[in-house]
Amino acid sequence: MNENAMKTEVIPASAADMAPFIESVKAWTSDFALREGRAPRCHVLTFGCQQNEADSEKLLGMALQMGYEGTDDPANADLILVNTCAIREHAEKRALSIIGQFKHLKEQNPHLIIGVCGCMVAQEHRRSQLQKSYPYVSFVLCTSVLYRLPQYLAEVQARGKRLFKGEEELTVAEGLPIQRASGYRAYVSIMYGCNNFCSYCIVPYVRGRERSREPADVIREVQELVEAGYKDITLLGQNVNSYGKGRADGYDFADLLRELDRIPGDHMLHFMTSHPKDATKKLVDVMAAGKHIAHSFHLPLQSGSDEILRRMNRHYDRAQYLEILDYMREKMPDIAVTSDIIVGFPGESEADFEDTLAMLRRARFDMIFSFIYSPRKGTPAAEMPQQIPREVQNARFDRLLALQAEIAAEQNTPLTGTVQRVLCDGVSKKNSDIYNGRTPQNKIVFFEEPAPEGTWLSVRVDRAEAFALYGTVIK
Ligand code: SF4
User: What is the mean pLDDT of residues 436-447?
Assistant: First the structure.
């Protein structure tokens, strides 16, 4: 059976089977409050991508619904949820070292419950490592069963159990409470999982098969966000372009985006991440005709060599990539296109790398996220011959960044003197004397005039650099 045709089961949050657990945890938290004179506190620590950030907002939303309060300080917490990433070995090691540091918190607060969630715990070897070597960790919760947090907490609280089940469901939980980190920028997951099996990527093994939310559920959520005053809504998926694949009615991502664009308001819509093999001219036409769809497209290329793209199992070549890129630029000349590039993939010759540099010169990305290839246990590429020596990878990485910095500066320079629409993010995190925000093309803009977060500004660009614009707010 074609994987995409498998029917996704939609689990309403109010599903009967979670209700008794929610009540059990609520009873536990109110007992705690009576005993301790305060509500128990929950701290969620997030590693990795926007999808993990969106999941963490649901984890905190469920905890608050069951009587916990949020805290930014793990030392003050009675429940710590660590939402992990598995994209690289390094990300897992970082999470495990931080979980290791929580040992003393458990010694200080024996009531403390520690749960580990996210992509890392989808792997059996990591679950058994946590079970054996981290006795103060109470449970692991896999990404596809996030909505079962009440059940896991109830079992731990009521019976002191430790739970290390690996679970994968082809389900989508709807209506979970969400505690959003921002009051004006929001993530909306529209699909989960990935069926692409790029040879270097662990995601399909830890996030499961693709399953899309029902259009009506997505539209309702975005409608509510716009009515609540949200200004920037980012639609999320490991591969948003394959949204709805396998639906009998043929409804796809472009159809969803067109419907979302009909929602009136002064907001903008972004989406990520796209896969070039599923990026269609239909989608580009919907973007170009849209009122709220930001002219910003993140389209991971990964390599400029057709041979390396074949070995990566990416299912497109340079020509196909450039065809959709050129069509985007023809339809939306002001579009900002960003990409992901992997350097030093097994078997990457100097000529293959030169092809990547040539593609950068041709594609002229506004920005790239660049990575040095590192083998991921369990992926085909990790077993491939001709792994590239680190010093060669590093040298190529430096050459790639140097070229992209030139291109990014050339892409931004023509913006000098223009007036940009900017969504203000308030005081700059790096320099409290200045403010910053982002254009619909996701370009960061710095300015000196104070302005409230979440408001639209008109900013005249006085100076353009490779990775930032500097300007003056004009009233
Ligand atoms: S499209 Fe490829 S790189 Fe992206 S999540 Fe899926 S398998 Fe990984």
Answer: 98
> 465's torsion region: left (phi>0), alpha (psi -120 to 50) or beta?
beta
Residue 126 C-beta-side C-alpha neighbours within 13 Å: 26
Tell me, using a 6 A CB cutoff, whether residue 199 lines ligand 1.
no
Q: Which residues of 150-161 are buried (b: 16+ CB within 10 A; e: fewer)?
A: bbbbbbbbeeee
How many Cβ atoms are within 10 Å of 35's Cβ, its own excluded? 9
User: Is residue 357 within 8 Å of 400, Cβ to Cβ?
Assistant: yes
How does DSSP assign 296-307, residue by residue?
A: EEE---B-S-HH
Whole-number pLDDT of residue 277: 97
Q: Please, which pLDDT band fits residue 168 given cuts at 50, 70 and 90?
A: confident
| Ligand 1 atom closest to residue 197's alpha carbon, by position in its atom list | 7
Q: Is 203 in the pocket of ligand 1 (CB under 6 A)?
A: yes
Q: Please give the model's pTM, rounded to 2 decimal places.
A: 0.94
Query: Which of 239, 243, 245, 277 is the best mutation target for the ligand 1 pocket, counting ligand atoms within 8 Å of the beta carbon and taking the most?
Result: 239
Show the DSSP H helices in 245-389 as ranges. 253-261, 281-289, 306-311, 318-331, 350-363
Q: How far apart are the first and last CA of the chain?
A: 59
pLDDT at 169: 80
Which atom of ligand 1 lies at the shortest distance from residue 302's CA? 3
Residue-level pLDDT at 171:
83
Reading the block at residue 363, the tokens are 């594609």
What average pLDDT does range 116-128 have in this prediction? 96
Q: How far is the CA of 194 from the centre of ligand 1 (A)?
A: 6
